[in-house]
Amino acid sequence: MSETLCRWGILSTAGIAMKNWHSIAASGNAKVVAVASRSVEKAQAFIDECQGSVPVAHQVDALGTYEELLGRDDIDAVYVPLPTGLRTEWVVKAANTGKHVMVEKPCGVSADDVQTMIDACNAHDVQFMDGVMFMHSARLPEIRKTLDDGSSVGEIRRIASQFSFCADEAWVASNIRASSNLEPAGCLGDLGWYTIRISLWAMNFEMPTEVRGRILYGAKRADSPNNVPMEFQGELHFANGTSATFYNSFRGNHQQWVNISGTKGYVEWKDFVLPYLDNTVSFDVANHDFVADGCRFTMEKYLQTVSVPEISNNGKNTQETKLFRNFSSLVLSGKTDSHWPDIALKTQQVLDAALTSAQNGGGPVML
Q1: Residues 68-127: pLDDT tens digits?
Q2: Which ranges in the chain are annotated with CATH 3.40.50.720?
Q3: What is the CATH number of domain 6-134?
Q4: What does the H/E/C string look like for the chain?
Q5: What pTM does this model have?
Q6: CATH 3.30.360.10 region(s) of the chain?
């Protein structure tokens, strides 16, 4: 291993990998060494496009098989944005060659898949982490301070979140997220991973006791055996009485908001997945008050916006760059952190329960 840089291989030329080419290049402690696809030509085309957008000074090798990338001894970690249905095989193979693994979300088709990946990584003492960028934002610790200060929110009673975007018919006809073979959880896997994760984060990763889900609309591309969720709603119930609701859709315009409300107020932010373009990230803290004075009933607005210095995207201090910087730091330290595989498995378990409930009429699934 390089003493100063974590050397990365990218396993697939998925679109999200272009963003993370930039993240690795900006991290300061990592570099991309090679990109593998099903053909050298496809891998080279990906590299050429990335170099045209965010050029790096060193050579990046194009490889025509995934096996070739995993067989190299000049790669410390692999980023795996393969379709979900293919991930378990290649994550296990990567771990078996001693490579640290960052995997896109949803991590697996099922919690059993994720446990298999984690077991392989543990057996070879390599790090496993999912690619949830917002977990590495400077905004999240500030929101945690607000939730824990005892006065801004009080006791959390309700968590609500939505992540959606509107896909046209051409997208449904061609995208892997409309294939039950490749992405069987559809919008629940692609978008629900985030809404479930932020709900668990708000509860300090306490698991819900009951999960319910409902598929509001399903569709599929022509080669898909079954429909996948295109619109989904879920509900989580926790032992202390707190509840969480989430909504995911490929059928509504861009929304990515969270509201965490309690006995004294609420916190809310509208861009929890991909922050709005700015040089700060922010959230609102509200403690509105109802005042009755004789015949005069008024709702008094008390709203504070808290801003945190952090470029929203495509920079040296963005959440996606910190994701790869933090992972690379773990690799370079020679240590692993069990927190990351633990929360990935919990997220998958809740996702599985929501999908099982939806496939069985929306009844409760007990955890």
Answers
A1: 999 999 999 999 999 999 999 999 999 999 999 999 999 999 999 999 999 999 999 999
A2: 6-134
A3: 3.40.50.720
A4: CCCCCEEEEEECCCCHHHHHHHHHHHHCCEEEEEEECCCHHHHHHHHHHHHHHCCCCCCCEEECCHHHHHCCCCCCEEEECCCHHHHHHHHHHHHHCCCEEEECCCCCCCHHHHHHHHHHHHHCCCCEEECCHHHHCCHHHHHHHHHHCCCCCCCEEEEEEEEEEECCHHHHHHCHHHCCCCCCCHHHHHCHHHHHHHHHHHCCCCCCCEEEEEEEEEECCCCCCCCEEEEEEEEEECCCCCEEEEEEECEEEEEEEEEEEECCCEEEECECCCCCCCCEEEEEEECCEEEEECCEEEEECCEEEEEEECCCCCCCCCHHHHHHHHHHHHHHHCCCCCHHHHHHHHHHHHHHHHHHHHCCCCCCEEC
A5: 0.96
A6: 137-317+347-366
